[in-house]
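[Solved] Which block belongs to which protein?

Original post:
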Amino acid sequence: MSADTSSSNRQWAPYDSRTMFLLDLLGNLPRLPVSDSLMRVFLWILKETGARDVPSFAHLRKVQIALRKQNGVPTLRCESALGNIFYMNDPCSIIAKDWSNPQIRPYIHVYPEEPDGPVSEVWHGLKWRQEMDPDALSPMWDAGSGRHYYVNELAELHDGQLVIPIRWFIRRGQVHADAFSVIVNVEGIASVRDSEEIVVAANDLSKNFLELDDRLPAAWDEHAQSWGYGKKMPNPLRNIAQGDPLYTSYIDYFGDDVSGNRSKSWNKHWNAYITHRNLPRKMLQQEFHTHFISTSPHASITEQFGKFKEAVESTHTKPVQVRDGLSGQTVRFRVYVNAEPSDNPMQSETSAHIGGGGNLFCRKCDAGGTDKHKESDCGFESLFNPGTPRTKDDVVLALKQQVNTACHGVAQHVKDLQTKTGVKDAYTQHWIDNILERARSMKKSSPSRSKESIQEELTQWVSDNWSTILTPFYTMPGFDPTKDTPIEILHTILLGLVKYTWHGTHTAWNSSTKDQYALRLQATDVNGLSIPAIRAGYILQYANSLIGRQLKTIAQTIVFHVRDLVPPLYFQLWVAVGELSALLWHSEIYNMDEYLDDLDIAIANVLDLFAEIDPSKIVQKIKIHLQTHDRYDILRFGPLVGLSTEVFESFNAVFRYCSIHSNHRAPSRDIALQLAAQESLKHCVTGGYWPTDSADSPNAWTNAGLGIRDYLTNQPILQRLLGWTSHTAQIPGSVLSVPLKRGQKTRPTCSLSQTKAASAGNIGAFSDSRSSQWAEGRSFVSQSKEVCTNGTWVFARSPSDNNQSVVGRVAEILIEATNSTRTLIVLEQFKVAAVRHETFKMPYLVSSFGESYLILAAKQDVKFAVNTQHDCAHAGCGVSSRRAVLQEREESGRTEAVFVHKQGQCDQFIINMTSFHNAHLVRQVLPRHLTAHRLLFPNRSAKHLEQARRLRQTNNTKREAAKEKRQKKTKTSGPSRRGAQSEARTKQVAEACGSEAESSDAPEDSFERSGEAESAAEEPESEHPRKRKRLI
């Protein structure tokens, strides 16, 4: 082999050639699947064209299998506790690839943090900083040279003081520790001052526990002994770390039922995905960082989580060793579950909750009760506030009580407990049903056997198998389902509050009103909204089947178009829902106290308005009550947008592409193998390391050749295909020129006096630029990394006062011809009115000095884009023209009406406070009196009493009507056949179980309230039209 050939092979390692790499890449693109038949066609075409190094199909598959064994993700065969077989990709291997990847490792955050600026990440939340068990956090700090400081061990400061670090965290960019000071008396007895925590900087530590041989206390005082301080030293985690730095990785676990078909035919699979929560939110919004774990048409999410839990728990005693992509040294990590962000039915199942159709319909607290209680003044009022929180111990106790009750053989008693407590777990229910059946069988096979004997035998079996019977979500260390199922804004806000309000709005419209709204919606200015182009006709045509993307558009725009199309209460509700949605989509929270005050008021307004329109909504719609828990989840996890499931829902498309290429004989295995292969390819292309199997270097790690690693950097198309976004995609201040027209070789230029800049009020400050030539720019990137063009509304630093901001519309972008780095932005300046808009209650803009006023700003002074909407009522805008309808990209013979905005010097523009994009930045620059939320009903308690009375009156009327209808039906038809069957079935059950309790009037399978996840009257939250409602 020649030197050139050898060098070329190393460049494309671990592949034999560039062709082999590209073919493997082609076969593992997430959203462009290639079947075996199509791959054979590609290989045939390559050979026919004379391409080099083209393998046979069999050789390609052989190489791919070998590569997956070398650097892939193991796919494990699993059998659940209920006997279902499925396959799972090893989650620990997936997380290990992040640690060993130089492109990803620098962004892994290992400690909680006290932010200097805004709260934006999960590690800024109270769960990491205060609530989590310190042993589940990263337990040590690496001081270099193999010196490791562990929590729960003595350490010495430079001044000689002894301390016990209990939790590591970041403050002002440096590692610190919460610690207890230790005092050693003259007799060598140590006491721990644990009544007060102190904070020490990690750099102030001089000796760790292993280096304190001469200063270790001779004994501990009685208090320290009672708390076991001495017994915890040295920290047992030192042994399992084996001298390597030891850290903790956290995972968000998502589960849902998804159709495996791309058609409307429903083909249910239970899918589980994860994300690595140690990575920043912006990275986790990329599809590249969403990882498939398992799927099964048979095994439920709880069953799959059981095997996932076993894999994760194994790292607690045997941490995963990897090559650190940052330092090049070996490190070890453990894995814990951070949260379970899924839709509401799945979160209820995770929490062992009876569901939204139960009496106690909230998975987070004890809110609810019987219909009579919820209609009472006290019960109705309680739904507007969080109830007593559910706890992990209480739920486990309730489940144990249900299982022990099942040992008596009476199904109705178990159901009564479930109704009373709101605790019902689908996984544990399998074992409850099994116990009930065994009780009946044992009684039937041995009629003379006593009930006590049967109960004793079953109770002993329960005791011996309790770890199997209890749902694995409640046995996972560091995970509390009652707290770690945060409010999910896609399903609870967009597919909840927004959808309810939209349904109540458009169903009351006639065709004329719908057409009027469609025209206004199509005329919306979408600059600064970060939404796709609006298709108003589509939204109205499929108004009952909208998905999250369209509902997000409606939530941010509808308030400006329906002021005269809906009743006043509905208009107020749209304003309130829009403002609450914008608050919950904040990606950064600068002032937590101020933000939470506004959030509380926004939630109160939404709940009060729903109840004012229809009091029954508060009782029936669990998603409305769940808003009362937003505050706690934000404090615990940071901004809720970081826990949105949109990226998981989007990843379902990748799953379906794999599903349709399976022969469906072993779908779980086929899909897991295909997605494991994609993980391997992504790791290889991004330069990640993996261990080699070389006998000469058993502990060596290697990565792909330079040719492969350069592909991701140099080929933007590959980044898009893999769902990867470059960290330097948008550089603030970068500018694009207007493209050359056909035939042009140079861009036209002109002097500053020939541009709009000549009319700028501050042109004098740019006198040195008047002699230069300037070309027209197409766009530039603001400091918040968004592309701005002509017509974009922006906030910029004031030319006269750097501490102030000005707002205006981009009128022109000018690039100096001889120095492309110098750019001037011409802004049409507006001023913020001193009061809010009378109708929309939002800040609004008016022309400066009553006329068009231009100013010049440097590109680096433009802070961010903002969405504004024209005040059409003030300007008298309306339908004033018609245009040809485009069909097949041509003007047809049909015409359509057009909504035209009237422009004038006295125009007013409303700052869109319902916009999600940059909502946090807008609130930073505007005066507080223009953004602070205000209660619509100051005396809320009195309003709730009034609403409760209306609810009772309405429901009593309905009950009387239903009672009269039943009486009339009974008189004409006699006893119903179903009633007779129920009485017969009850009698059979009583005879089989031999229990007096079972001779009650209620049949065995009766239930006080349905346990469905959503009430029958509620529209399903799934985007799939045939997704069934889950029974919890």
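(Second protein starts here: sequence line, then its structure tokens.)
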Amino acid sequence: MEKVLEYLEPKTFNKVHYVAVGFWILFSVIFFAIFVDMENSESRFDFRCGGAKSENVDVVRGECYEKYMKQYNKFSFPMFGFVIINFVLIALVCAIYSQIVRSKVDQLSRGNRNGDQERQLRDQDTASLTGNKLFIAYCSQLSIRIVLGVIFIILQTQLFYPLKFSSKFNCYLTDGTTQPRNSSDNTQNSTLHYCHNQRAEKKTFWMYAVLTVNGILVAGILVETVYLLSRACIERSFMQDSKFLKTHLSLNQHLDGPNGRDTEELRERTFQEFIERTKEIIFQETEGLLELQSPFAKNLTLDQIYTNLVVIQNRETHDFTENREEQLKVYPRSRDENSQPKSMQDLLDVESKKVLIVGRPGIGKTLCCIKLLRDWASDEVLDATLGANFHFNAAFFVKFRRFNSADDLSLKELLMRSEYFPTHHMDDKVWNHLQKNPEGVLMLFDGFDEFEHDEKKTKASPYPKSIEDRKPLQILYQWLVTGKLLKDASIVTTTRPTALSGIAHLKFDKSFEILGFSTKQIKDLSEIMRFESSDKFRDQHFTRKNYLSDNLPKVVEKKFKKLGRVAFEGIQEGKLILGGNKVQGMEDSALFHRLPDRRAALKDEKQFCFIHLTMQEFFAARHLVSNLSETELRNFVSKNIKNGKWQLVFQFLAGLMEDKVHLPIEIITDLLPVKTEEIESADYNEQWTENEEQRKVTCWPTEDERELAVTLIKCLNENSRMKSEAQRKLQQMNFNCANFIRCHLTAVDCSSLVNVINVQQISHLDLSDNNIGPLGCFEICKLLKCRESQLSWLDLTENQLTDEAAKYLAEAINNNNCQLRTLNLRNNYISDIGAQHLADAINNNCQLHTLDLTSNNISDIGAQHLADAINNNNCQLHTLDLTNNNISHIGAQHLADAINNKNCQLHTLNLSYNNISDIGAQHLADAINNNNCQLHTLNLSYNNISDIGAQHLADAINNNNCQLHTLNLTNNNISHIGAQHLADAINNKNCQLHTLNLTHNNISDIGAQHFADAINNKNCQLHTLNLSYNNISDIGAQHLAEAINNNNCQLHTLNLTDNNISHIGAQYLAEAINNNNCQLHTLNLSHNDISHIGAQHLAYAINN
């Protein structure tokens, strides 16, 4: 009943009728409770019968009670069920009627309660056209309720129940039922029992009450119906909706009593009517946007065509300049399914109300705002997503491009000039409601990059004196974001990356980046749009000769020249909005989008903009190539080549110069940077070396010229003559490493890069920390498969690479032309499937020597694939790095079986940051103990290895078959017991271990003593020992000092960082290195407590 009451709108009934409906619902609750109580408490024990023997009393009472119920309830229909259906059905009729006519009543009464005369006249005109639908609906619900009331009265009195339930009842039962059966007497006689029902009077009373209420209902409604019909016959205009509302239903406006409450209710109703009207307009005007219309197919609605874009949260912060090239530098940081919202509603929550959305041009920022606004207008969509605790009462959509002026305006005026605002006036009641309830306000600001603003003025904006302050938009916007106006309102802002510097000082709760469509979405769309006849054209080779071309008509050419000048001047002056005088004669061109007129003092001015900024940039390039002389063009390009806003213009320019033979290509090619730099690092080694020798390479471009080089490469790729000249210059530079680390390269950029830098001398290519993705990897693979390419070292760290990219790389390194020796794929999204692709490749005469798969998603299954590969005699892999994956002891066993095979050539295996445990350590120990194993370096740090695992490894390196030189067990669970096992092992003459790292374990002084005893032995070949973070005190330092003081000790490096060594331990060590027997070259005591005294001891020692 409470739900029914919620759907009863007081404004759809008159005062008396609404009270009557309320009492009806009250009676229904009362009757329901009474009859349910009677049903639950009544039993056959309230029914008494005489004449039965004591042992048969219950039998008699039960059978007589059943006969009584059959007589007074013919159809066995429970009375409480009858009462429920009676009252609920009639109440539902009232609720259904109220909801049906609610919007009609709102429309008719809106003009009377709103000061907007324009809307009042519109509503009155609408009312005159709607006729008497409200009167008919009202009379219809009265008629239905009369019919239902009469039906329930007839059912109660004539069919289901008697008018009176008798308390006395004569019950006839056969003797065989009430007496024991006598086998000698088969005669059965009927017996009369006089029964009494104690609840008969109570039932009779309450059934009469139900009958009375139904009778009053029918009588009351009948009186009202006769009144309405008689008045309608006398006064025909009474049936008109507006007249009927005013004369019969309007009494309900003052139902709630005091004037203060009336005012509050009126304010709330006015606000709700405003919101309903706004939602109606939004829902209608956003259904079929102009951008979605198709000239050759059925137009699709926004709901049909919209798809969730790939959006990531907390994008990496970049120091964007005003250069337009920066907007193309921020690309996907994560395609992880868990890091992207599933829909646009995920952008907002209770705690994050100030949200910034960044995206490249045309990526879908505006459409995202429109979809979010449309979801709000559809009520349940957005509310259901955000939850009951977070609800928007009002939403406003503001496009920055509408306010490209310094005119002052108030917040109220700003809201009135928002998109889809229903009127030219905001009622004071609505405005007051917004001020009192800012937490329910959603404001969408779209296109900050399209707004001409003064950053200095914005950053120095004062605190508002009142909410009516009139200020430029940039100040109002800052007040809204910082909470100085409408403190708890939700603010969503969209912008291109190039404009981030203008709002960098504002603190947003969340920032998002729209990346566009996922790879799967692109594939699905391509499959849908693929022509069935595409196979016929796939093998065809089309050249420019296959196309017909001709000069443009003079009229068109004249217009295009004007367009080029307008586009060029707009970019040069930073103007995106063009006045009507600029495009005079071209207003109907499909190249322009018509904006709302700009309001001026005397006359509104027409406004236009290009349908997309790239279109403006193309015509600007056309203007440059057609109107500037060679000298002017050369000076202009050289002056602005580093200015980001001209980046795409110059790309278009390079392409247009292809056919302009009178313009020398040197205008662009002479700008190609020629400076190189030498870098020396072990990372650049192509072959595994035990001592990690430094490799020196000559890199191009240098760090300060990478941005320029990328810009020019994009330009050069647009012109075949320029590309050839650039390759000639690159060959003369004598460099062997192309270094494009952190250049924000994308898949498209990779295509340009591969086409331009395809020169023979390049052996190293560093593309780490970009965002090339699988498609960019596909382009790079073209370089690997090129016959002339000498590329032997490739770094693709942190590039959003997936299994698809791994597949492309596997095909490339399997190619006969590929000379790649080192492949770095750290920090990507390669899973077991990608690992299988790579395993199949290195299993097939591949020349790859080093493969780094650190920080991917490889599990035991992927480890098995790789193990099967290195187990093959075709595999030449020497170094395999699987750090920070999901490999357990099972994967470790697969790898152990592989390195145990004589075909395996692996020298270095890194399994750090996995979970191989003691079981996995045992498998690996068994493997390196085999004479077939060629492993020299094993890294098992961060793997939950305890003393048991340490014992297994110690037993292995103690064997003369083991060739292991370096063992890293950092950050495991090894104590002094495991240290003793390892110390005993390196004390053996068979052990070839040179480096042992036990950082971050729990070795303690006891373990330090064990190692001291070991390195004190002439059999020990250990050169480097790392015992950092191991709770070693002065006692342990003393033991180690005594060991390195011995002439048998060969230790060159000892690391005791972050232990508990004081100046006393430092003194022991100082005395040891002061001895001529000590061969120590490096001693690290950082993060201890040796104090100045210990430092003094060490100083005396190294001074000796």
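Accepted answer:
You had them paired correctly. Confirming on the second one: The radius of gyration is 44 Å.
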